[in-house]
Amino acid sequence: MRHLITIRSLEVEHIQELLDLGADFKERVIANKNVPKIANRVLGLLFFENSTRTRVSFEQAAYYLGIKTANFSSHGSSMSKGETLKDTILTLRHERLNGLVMRHQMSGAPHLAARFFGGPVVNAGDGQHEHPTQALGDAMTILERKGSLQGLRVAIVGDVKHSRVARSNAWLLNKMGAEVRFVGPRNLIPINTANLPGEVFYDLQAGIQDADVVMCLRLQKERMSDGLLSSSSEYAAMYQVNRDTLKWASPDCMVMHPGPLNRGIEVDDVVADGAHSAINNQVENGVFVRMAALYWVFNELEIPEKPAKPVAKKGVKVGR
Amino acid sequence: MSILLKNGRILDPSQGMDMVGNVLIEFDQIISVGPEVATDEIEEIYDCTGLWITPGLVDPHVHLREPGDSHKETIVSGTQAAAAGGYTTICCMPNTNPPLDTPALIDFILDRSASPEAGGVFVAPVGALTVGMAGERISDLAAMKKAGIVAASDEAFPIQDANVMSQAMEFCVQLDLPIMAHCENLALSSGGSMNEGAMSAMLGLKGIPRTAEEIAVMRNCILALHTGCRLHVMRVSSWGAVEMIRQAKYLGAPVTCEVCPMHFSFTEDSVKEFDTLFKITPPLRTRADIEMIYEGLSDGTIDCIASDHSPHASHEVDVPFEEAPFGSVGLETTVAATLTMLTHKGILTPLETVRKLSTMPAEILRLEAGTLRPGETPVAQVTVIDPNVEWTFDRNKTFSKSKNTPFHGMAFKGKPVLTFNGGEIYRDAFFEQNRYQMVR
Fold this sequence. Notes:
The complex is a heterodimer. By secondary structure, chain A is an alpha/beta fold.
């Protein structure tokens, strides 16, 4: 059985497969032709942490693939009555859900779910650990503009320490041959990065020098109240990617952001809305890689042949 | 009624004894220890050829969970686990519900542990240092001492206010009570669930920095130095903490410390994919820390080895890593882990091993234990260890009510096989039947 829980544990060929699937689905969806359907599957969307963007993106992906979704939120559920996560997962298992998409505020929660669910689990973001579908969407976006990830210089700028987006992107880019740089203030970079695939820069200029891609990370307001940073204006003065600082990067550099944006803090309007920005493409491609992720965990198939016939459903068993 | 433990390797650090010989127990007392035994009235013979005969082992750090958390462990199940682990005396920690902060609760512990269904080991309670372990008001330590506590501790709720700690130490000097201190600066560690380092960065878990432990160790050592209070630092894990304690001892502070098998058996890397069995406090550190723990054990900076037996029910452990409680059970693996990880690797000699598992903890807590000298313990306390038996630990075959241990399935070399506290309280299946003989 396949799960998609971390990029860290994925083989390069699996990443390639997922990216190819994503690109393929994009073509089919835009042409509104031959989008394969996955019938007879019910997908649980478990969002223990608030998220509109990712949830909508998964719903949209499921819709395109003809997968029925069942929503579950921790508010008003038995979780708020003291049920453990394990028991919730076992309940969903015995309600015969076929797959789970899970967002949880604690790192590692999808690992636990995968242990007890018995069907595929797709991680939609766990704590500060990983957010694999975000990284896949970002990679697809880079590929569309750059053609290849091999040898690209990618600077991930901001709160690396608390960012699951940074971790998943770093693993993916590193595995696919890009050079990853972590850029940010000392307080927002892990003290020991020996197990993370990137080089650390505390200075923005050095960090984005000649970069082909600059990924900004969202700065959470809690970082100031936690005493990790002096103020958002000081952060902006030192690390904002804007029309001036972007000059240090490569002239055809692309700028990315996982959203939601703090305009004027991580990035200024000129850059966020300018020609370098790929922010809207990231959102769009997020849907297609999530289709790829669902297709990949449910069908364990290679890329469907093109032009694809609607996927034959004969003899398909419920994904257990 | 006399029992002869025959032809074993007698290891008694209290008298520097390492020789092959016999131990004679009559009624419930050790009568003689040595090469020859002058008696012709032996009723039972245990052939200990190839085995170690040691003073009954002493565990300074056990959580029996009663009152309040008997779904994790009870005094009955915990003492049975202790007997099977080779212990004749264990110290139980006060972080129960309610905490052990009144003499009545101490009475309850002692009554329960002496009940016939219990494991037959002595339980030496540790009282809460402050009322409710809240770190504010010193509890009625004098009354609790009368009731039988051997030390005071706020265990997992370390006193943060240095003045409260300083005053508590002054009072404990007067009462001649040692303070057992879990050393942690909560401002630095709060919200953390594993060592702050390469693994926590990779897993996206908030780290517990080594500074949280080291600053607290240093503060407590300095307070002990100036008040003269006996301080026992519980479960050291970081190289800096070992170094602080070494310095404190050099300065003449009355400081001792313990290490738990988890901290010399595993590193932070064991957490792998969020395995909650490896979540302990202080957290598992790195190879460099283990090297320093080895050094501290062999040079005497680390005085003793404790199980830090911390039972938790499976539903409490099968949760996301950050939600999981700290700790693992250890009464039935501590001796085996010590022999496997330290003795057989040449870190500790057999005599030093026994010193750290028996004589030293008894000395630190002023217990009448940790020796084979006739008349120096209330009853005969003897443990027989097979140092070379190779076996695989199965957590489903233990006496403890909880099974939260990462040692499950691990191959060990060495095991306690007989425990005497007055009479025989535990005999292991690895003690072959033909070694035991009823003479009449």
